């Protein structure tokens, strides 16, 4: 379908997102190719901007990620996914005031957005607000018992901001219990286990997938 309909925005986005979600360097390159194709055809496709920003964060290119998020928001000021990714970057930088501003903006547009609320929960964990984290955790899992993304986001930001790779490794295991059918849930702990020197266990997580 991709080859026969190169102008099909929805198909190209779906195809790119499949590759982008896998996190590997090769798959990011494939995803990036399709996001660039979309933006060359139409620079106003905010989902492609977000995809480019997500790829940039995978390679620690934070300024590029910020630029892509801001360009997406210039096109669509109500695009909550770009606000959320930008908030994650701000949390990683320790700029909690800007993260809070983005959270407030996202709340006004869609107060039920799960990823935005998961990002808020991660920030609360990092600043030591255990009660606030647990409140959002309870709400999110009540709505979607398989929403392991909550723990993935929290684990990533704990590792990035606090350099607490031991805590990150423990948090990153929770998505497996939340949704055992999610293959990516097994890969993330493998990466974090490598960060704490548990390579044998890490290889077990990754090779089983």
Structure commentary:
It is a single chain. This protein has 209 residues and is an all-alpha fold. It is built from 13 helices and no strands. The chain has helices at 9-20, 25-41, 46-58, 62-75, 80-93, 96-109, 114-126, 130-143, 149-162, 165-171, 174-178, 184-195, 199-207. Helix 3 (46-58) packs antiparallel against helix 4, helix 10 packs antiparallel against helix 12 and helix 12 (184-195) packs antiparallel against helix 13. The protein is globular, with a radius of gyration of 17 Å. The relative contact order is 0.07.
Quick recap of the structure?
The chain is mainly α and about 210 residues long. Helix content is about 75%, strand content about 0%.
Q: What is the share of helical residues?
A: over 70%
Q: Look at the structure and give the mean pLDDT.
A: 82
pLDDT below 50 for ≥5 consecutive residues: which ranges? Answer: 189-209
Task: Characterize the main sheet.
Answer: none
Order of helices and strands: HHHHHHHHHHHHH
Q: What is the rounded Rg?
A: 17 Å
Structural class: mainly alpha
**Which term fits the overall shape?**
globular
Query: What is the total tally of β strands?
Result: 0
- Rounded to the nearest angstrom, the distance between the terminal CA atoms is 27 Å
- Beta-strand residue percentage: under 5%
Specify the number of helices. 13
């Amino acid at each position: 379908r991709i080859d026969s309909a190169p102008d099909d925005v929805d198909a190209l986005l779906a195809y790119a997102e499949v590759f982008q979600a896998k996190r590997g360097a090769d798959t990011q390159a494939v995803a990036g190719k399709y996001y660039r194709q979309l933006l060359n055809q139409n620079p106003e496709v905010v989902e492609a901007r977000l995809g480019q920003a997500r790829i940039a964060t995978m390679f620690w290119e934070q300024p590029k990620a910020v630029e892509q998020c801001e360009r997406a928001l210039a096109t669509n000021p109500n695009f909550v996914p770009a606000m959320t990714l930008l908030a994650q970057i701000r949390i990683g930088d320790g700029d909690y005031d800007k993260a809070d501003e983005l959270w407030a903006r996202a709340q006004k547009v869609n107060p039920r957005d799960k990823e935005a609320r998961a990002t808020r929960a991660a920030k609360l964990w990092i600043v030591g607000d255990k009660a606030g984290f647990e409140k959002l955790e309870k709400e999110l899992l009540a709505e979607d018992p398989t929403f392991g993304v909550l723990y993935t986001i929290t684990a990533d930001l704990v590792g990035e901001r606090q350099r607490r790779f031991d805590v990150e490794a423990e948090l990153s295991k929770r998505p497996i219990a939340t949704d055992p059918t999610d293959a990516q849930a097994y890969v993330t702990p493998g990466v974090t286990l490598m960060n704490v020197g548990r390579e044998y266990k890490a290889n077990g997580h990754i090779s089983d997938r």
